[in-house]
Specification:
- The chain contains 5 helices and 16 strands.
- The termini are far apart.
- A hairpin with a 2-residue loop joins strand 15 and strand 16.
- With about 240 residues, it is α/β, with parallel strands linked by helices.
- The strands form 3 sheets. A 7-stranded mixed beta sheet has the order 3-6-9-12-14-15-16. Strands 1-4-7-10-13 form a 5-stranded parallel beta sheet.
- It folds into 2 domains: about 180 residues, UDP N-Acetylglucosamine Acyltransferase, domain 1; about 55 residues.
- It is about 45% helix and about 15% strand.
- The protein is elongated and about 115 Å long.
């Protein structure tokens, strides 16, 4: 137990440059307290003292602003920075060396039973105010940008951003999105329809312009003919004056 406590404190020093002393870490880091409370509550839950486990988790929520269901499975060296507003659901699974910032929700999407919360693999970073929802998986060594809403699996070694989240980097290479359907944004269908409408109008305008070309040529000829007549009339007038 004491080895795990020392490991948790070292984790804070490794990931937070604001940590200056072990005493400050132990007394001023609610994310650390939340992890310790959860370990006790999780043991009680597995021993079928579930009401006591829930009460303990709610006490931890009151003290830290972090709500972790006692049934959630959490690996080693979890670092919750700041932590206020973090929610981790009942069937969530978190691997080793994961970092969560404030406002992160690992939640479900409905009232179904069974596995309904995310699985976060090893060495994942999730930015503040991010929602990861449903029975999905965030692959190892991946990063989720702040404010994202993740509704589908994220492959390992990827970076995802947006609402809903989409992959922008994978294995260190930039992912260029050329089809709006790949983003699956609620507005993408409207944008696709608008783009199609613009293409239709441009084609129709081009057709009208091609049909008008002969008339434009005739009008140009008539204009040139009128100019020649005007010039000839001017010459005749000059000759009569002489």
């Amino acid at each position: 137990m004491f080895d795990r406590i020392r490991e948790d404190i070292r984790t804070v020093f490794e990931r937070d440059p604001a940590a200056h002393s072990w005493l400050a870490v132990v007394t001023c880091y609610p994310g650390l307290w939340a992890v310790w409370f959860h370990r006790a509550a999780h043991r009680l839950w597995k021993a079928h003292f579930r009401l006591i486990a829930r009460i303990l988790s709610q006490k931890a929520r009151f003290l830290t602003g972090i709500e972790i269901h006692p049934a959630a499975t959490i690996g080693r060296r979890l670092f919750i920075d700041h932590g206020m507003g973090v929610v981790i659901g009942e069937t969530a699974v978190i691997g080793n060396d994961v970092t969560l910032y404030q406002g992160v929700t690992l939640g479900g999407t409905g009232k179904g039973h069974g596995k309904r919360h995310p699985t976060i693999c090893n060495n994942v970073f999730i930015g503040n105010n991010t929602n990861v929802l449903g029975n999905i998986s965030i692959g190892a060594n991946s990063r989720i940008g702040a404010g994202s809403v993740v509704l589908t699996d994220v492959p390992p070694n990827s970076t995802a951003v947006g609402v809903p989240a989409h992959i922008v980097y994978r294995n260190g290479e930039r992912i260029l999105i050329t089809d709006p359907h790949e983003i699956k944004d609620p507005l993408s269908d409207a944008l696709i329809a608008l783009s199609g409408r613009m293409d239709h109008l441009e084609a129709k305008l081009g057709s009208v312009a091609r049909q008008a070309e002969p008339f434009a040529a005739e009008e140009a000829d008539r204009t040139a003919y009128r100019k020649e007549l005007d010039l000839l009339s001017e010459y005749v007038s000059m000759g009569e004056g002489i």
